[in-house]
Amino acid sequence: MYKQGEPNLWTGRLDSETDPKKFRHFQTVTFEDLSKLEKSSMPSGVGILGYAVDKGVALNKGRIGAKEGPDAIKQAFAGLPDLNQCEILVDYGNVYHDHEELIDTQKEFAMLAAKSIANHRQTFLLGGGHDIAYAQYLATRKVYPTQSIGVINIDAHFDTRAEQQSTSGTSFRQILEEDENTDYLVLGIAQGGNTQSLFDYAKEKKIDYVFADELLSHVSPTIKDMIERFVHEHDVIMFTICMDVIDSAFAPGVSAPAVLGLYPHTVLELAKRIIPSDKVSSVSIAEMNPTYDADNRTAKLVANLVHHFLK
User: Among the record's GO biological process terms, what is one (predicted)?
Assistant: First the structure.
């Protein structure tokens, strides 16, 4: 079920009503009905769409609450300074789960997300469970039907479980099994968060991955080269971040809190190798769970990641 954006989420400190250099995002955001959006001849600006769904988390036996994530992130983002000085920023609202099957909600979200991807230079998809990634893939493939897609996931988990239905732990297996013109790179894998069968599947499917403990002190030249080569080898990059990759000291409000997780600045450093590429059509950030957040710490962290990712 799709609902348009809610202006009452977008509030913040008012420094000026006339000087754009003092504006914050709540002063420049606009709202549109994505279901009625016509295709633009020239993509521009930024679109934001929320995936207010945690059904996939429940199916994956995780702790629920991530469906409240998109609104919490938007509220935290609203008060940050608009350093782009009034470039187009559109909140398209959220998609909610009201279908019998999760896959139908993913398809609904994909149809709408594809419109944003086609109309904007950047599209941010805010979760919600990491089943958002399969919906993001469907949207990407709709916009780019023949191009090779490189999927980059900053995550503690492979999320390649073999299940009979979509869950927050199956997205990337679904993508790889359905589409031979895709490849998968995972950054931040936790050795204690994945079974041997998932490592075996990674070997079978030639999934590239980097362990979290290889990223704790710095991002080495070897890893930087791996990322840049992966971006270079694909026509389109689908970029996604699962917030459970970040240590719970910094991100307590997630579906599965991390032990020995990454530092936020490491995630930023990795993203700097990905975001600037024009091949990046969309960015999704998943598993922000306000139910378990402390002082809005995780919501603010996601908001600041989006803020840094703006081109």
Answer: L-histidine catabolic process to glutamate and formamide
The reply to whether 155 sits in an annotated binding site is: yes
Radius of gyration of the chain (CA): 18
Residue 255: which pLDDT band, with cuts at 50, 70 and 90?
very high
How do the domains of the chain map onto residue ranges?
A: 2-309
| pLDDT per position as a tens digit, 72-125 | 999 999 999 998 766 799 999 999 999 999 999 999 999 999 999 999 999 999
157 assigned to a ligand binding site: yes
Residue 54 marked as a ligand binder = no
Q: CA 127, 131, 137, 138: dihedral to nearest 10 degrees?
A: -100
Estimate to the nearest angstrom the gap between the alpha carbon of 146 and the chain centroid: 23
Residue 244 assigned to a binding site? yes
The class of domain 2-309 in CATH terms is alpha beta
Q: What DSSP state is assigned to residue 64?
A: -
Asked if residues 153 and 194 have their Cβ atoms less than 8 Å apart, the reply is no
Q: Are 77 and 307 in contact (CB under 8 A)?
A: yes
H or E stretch covering 208: strand 208-211
| Whole-prediction pTM | 0.97
Mean pLDDT value across residues 270-281: 96
Nearest-5° Cα angle at 251, 250 to 252: 110
Mean pLDDT on 19-29: 95
Give CA–CA dist 133/29, Å, rounded. Answer: 25
CA atoms of 135 and 104, how far apart (whole Å): 10
